[in-house]
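[SOLVED] Need 3D model of a two-part complex

Original post:
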Amino acid sequence: MSHELETSAHPAESRVGADATPASGPLRDLALPAGVVAGLLLGFGLLTLTDAAFIDKLLYILLLSLVAVSVNFTHSATGELALGQVGVFAAGAYGYAVTTNHYGWNGWLGLAFGTVFAGLIGIIAALPSLRIGSWYFALTSLFIAVVIPDLARQIPSLTGGSDGLAGIPPLVIGSHALTFKDVYGVAVVLVVMLLAALRILTHSRYGLAFDSLRRSPVFATSLGVSVVRTKALAYGFASVVSGLAGGLFAAVNGYVSPDAFPVSLSILVVAGAVVGGQESVVGPVVGVAILQLLPDYTSSVQRYSLLLYGGILVIVMLLVPRGLVPVITDGLRRGWRRIGPRRPDTPSASRRLASSSPVDVALPRAQLVTDLEVVDVAKAFGGVQALGGISFDAPAGFITAVIGPNGSGKTTLLNLITAVYPRDAGYVRLGGVSLARRRHRVAAQGVARTFQTPMIMAERTVVDNVQAGAFLTGRATFLESLLGVGRARAEQRRGRERALALLAEADLLHIAHRDAGEVSLGQQRKLEIVRSLALNPRLLLLDEPCAGLMGREVEELEGLLKRVRDAGYSIVLVEHNMSLVMSLADRVVVLDQGQVIAVGPSDEVQASPEVIAAYLGDDDGA
Amino acid sequence: MPASWQPYVTALFVGMGTGGVYALVAMGYNLVFSSTGVFNLAQGDLVSVGGFLAFALVTSSHVNVLLAVCVAIAAVGALGLIQELITVDPYLRRKGDGFGWLIATLGASVAIENGLQLIWGSEPHPVPPLVSHATFYILGAPVAASYVLVFVIAVAIAVGIDVWTARTMIGQAWRATAEDREAAQARGINVRAVGIAAFVLAAMLSGLAGFLVAPITEAQYNAGAIMSLQGFVAIAIGGFGAQRGALVGSLLLGIAEAEASLIWSPGYQSTTALVLLMLVLVVRPSGLFGRVDPRVA
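Solution:
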């Protein structure tokens, strides 16, 4: 799902680059510039064609491509489908048309206005549904595509109503009015720059945040990523891009009318993104081009074009749900592997890497030593009291285990501390400060967590996963991350070094560049702990870190946890494996049916008769 | 009652009539969504198909209205079955495929719309009132019989579905599936069959809705997209899962649109619906009668 950004305009080069072994370093650095140059050459090369109507058509394809790329970006960044993005495109077009035609604004000012206006329309209309998630957004977006042309029809004094607005002034530089060929050149540059920027974004803190968000909102917030703000950021950017395309459309056409933005055009754009392949950055451009050019060359098909789009959507989703471009690039990649030079196998690559990395670095010491206090925390689901007034302390520098049979409320407790669920009563304090009620803020207060089923970004590398944990330690803005300049570049390099150092500490350096989905469960669990450390936490909350692990893996994990504790971090872990808890934990809190029945040093608790009766009695204690 | 209120009262009942159409669509969504989590973007186009069948059978061929409505319901139900098997079933059986069905049903929507245009052209096709040309006077305001008919049938069907889900074996299976798909499966309920049945039933309701609304709006090939969205807004207002929510939400939407058309202009219909949707999402995301908070679901 997430290697969309691993694919570039030039599959062969980029694939070699994407292996990210030191050997392919220079190639990797070249892949992006090579793609940019090739894209520009192709774009401007087509200008030498003498068929003006064809170039006009290509310009339209490029402008729709910008919309399709923004739809694709929204999906890959947030998991949401902007089904009606042409509505935002239309807002940009009308923004330009009305300000320049009606109010006599300078074209560039009108273009800026149209872009900002479209961005605002997109965000305002989408925000309520972005908060809720699921497919509310997709349908609200489709609604925008219906409403914008409808509204334009309703205010003829401004927009010309159904007749549209003619005589829209073009963009002017000096005394030269930009022709459609000029605007075509602008559009080529825009498309190429946008694709390059989106590719740069992948490895930035925002690229990782977007991937975590698409993986799961609960996961993203555990890294300190605000779901609503991040979705709004992604969709706002997508809307600005679509609005800019709309403004250019109005400027080059000189005429806009509601009929230029039918709902079917939104569907063409979505169809383009799907057919081209949503995982691929260039996919939408290819898809839109196919769908626009196809009816042209089979002119008898024109009447059936919507039937064709509809049919293509159904068939492509059924047969090649990944889209054409990823399928083709995969094929090329396989072919390249067969005929191309053998790439270094993983062990040798990682040895080289290991030698260049500071393996002997010690685990960084916890920056602040803090106690966790849980006071009277309660939660009911419907009529069921999951936790009824839980209180306990977890002193700094110790491993505190919360144990109890299945259903005793252990995971609920973690979810209440991290504000995944609102607490009915009670409070939680870390170092004397109350923990926030907003999830992503809790992470910012220094609470990191792992999950019962490891939450990892399966298609990203192990080291990427660790870097995702450092979202909050970065300061680079979204814009810096897009352009790969300023703080973004430096932070990324530092973050990578730090991630590798942490991986070395956990003895995971040899798998740093493997896809996280491919490594063993034990390694994934260690990876989660390493990722938690990347957050610079004061407290680690671990949800059954040893579940599903065998002998040696358990020992390795125990060793890692003890080293983390000895570096001064507070650890609270939830576990139902009694023997593991006894060998690992310094202190134990026993939960039974939503109540604390014992707290204290492990050996004392183990000997407590109530615990033996309530817990060990009806459990085999394994 | 002052005479100047009359148009607003008429609009109120007109709104309840069109709200009845939305309700038939929205109840169909509810049936399908509760049991499968799927939202059919072509539902509105199935309504259009029902409308054109009304035109073909009643206006062109003078078939008896009762027979015609049965044929239309059966035909749209069959179309729904085909659509389910192509655009929904494969995605439900494919694990972790996310929104595949959303795009596939969108494709179906576009294809059906274009198909209707190819067969019947772009012009609206008139359909005479099905039962009576009479105009009722309710509270002194004139209301065409067609609106009353739709409203009465929608309410009857809402009650019928509630009784059906409570009393019959299939209804119970549907409820169990809606409650917990996996648990239902574990108890031996064929959840796939339940999902298909719900989808076909929803399609039949859409066919009926199209048939009933055709005399009011005329049969139009491109009315489907907005109808799908209106059904969605109605259910967002009422809340997912509850049939009375779908009914009340639909009526509220219909009335709001009718009054807004009267006050401003008919062109603001879609805008009214969008504004209403955004208000609901901000103020009460789970809808008026919603049992589940969509943020958790």
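Edit: The two ends of chain A are 38 Å apart (CA to CA).
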